[in-house]
Amino acid sequence: MDALAGLLDGPRARGAFLLRMVMDPPWSVRIEDRAPLCLMSVTRGEAWVLPADGAEPVRLRPGDVAVARGPAPYTVTGTPGTDPHARIGPGGLCTTLRGEPLAESMRLGVRTWGNASDGATAVLVGTYLLDGEISRRLLDALPPLLALGSDDRSGPLLALLDTEIARDEPAQSVVLDRLLDLLLIAVLRTWFARPGAEGPAWYRAMGDPVVGRALRLLQNEPAHPWTVAALAARTGVSRAGLARRFTELVGEPPMAYLTGWRLALAADLLRETDATVESVARKVGYGGSFAFSTAFKRVRGQSPQEYRGGKGAR
Q1: DSSP string spanning 207-264?
Q2: Going by C-beta distance under 8 Å and a sequence separation of 6 or more, which residues neighbour residue 34?
Q3: Per residue in 55-108, pLDDT tens?
Q4: Over the stretch 5-41, which tens digit does the pLDDT of each residue have?
């Protein structure tokens, strides 16, 4: 697995929140859904995305794509300075700023929402609702808001998503989930291919002949009973040399990286499979459920059972 494949291995939407937003000016929507990731693309007119932290607004024209990383709020608007008239909360719940429901009054058809059916602006919106649908390693590699201009690789997928989003056919939600995954991967592949683009430290370290090999060993064989000495032997360097170089390039020692990788894999397994906690523990290299549960709660702030049930802090 190459470094980019390792980074992008993870988008797996399940019942994602997908819609076409159609608006006539003036309009402005406050997004406070705390979702881990949202992808937006204008198909008609233009829109602006305004981060809550005061960062530079991003202007979107037809074919442009923006990706917003949660849980920070942001505003999508036709014109900067327009006061929000609607709020999108957790789970895609739409209300006025006073909490009055808007979902029905602004419904324009299947997965279509807005204030005018023939509005001047149309925006495709695809939101990953749950942690675990996007790997934490990928989220940590992204800025709070990124934007790309119209691109030949994402264009056909955008056109297909635009066609499919308003259809109401059997298994349509599954089709849309997969299209969203493909579109996100295409967009992020373009993002990381930009001149001067910088991924996370471990991603850049993949190019090092020693540390890159060590990282691939840890990623591909997480259940192996690794020690620094065993890893050094497999990479052909001294234990001290590997530990020093790994820490310099990755930003943490080999065993700390391995713990984080194992727990990230375990989180996905807990959400995506019915495997027991004991089975998950052994698949990612723990001797039993007690040690695994202790490590998981220390890092994630909740037990494996709580995480699987979607309870506790996110």
Answers
A1: TSTTHHHHHHHHHH-TTS---HHHHHHHHTS-HHHHHHHHHHHHSS-HHHHHHHHHHH
A2: 70, 71, 90, 314
A3: 899 999 999 999 999 899 999 999 999 999 999 999 889 999 999 999 899 999
A4: 767 776 788 889 999 999 999 999 999 999 999 999 9
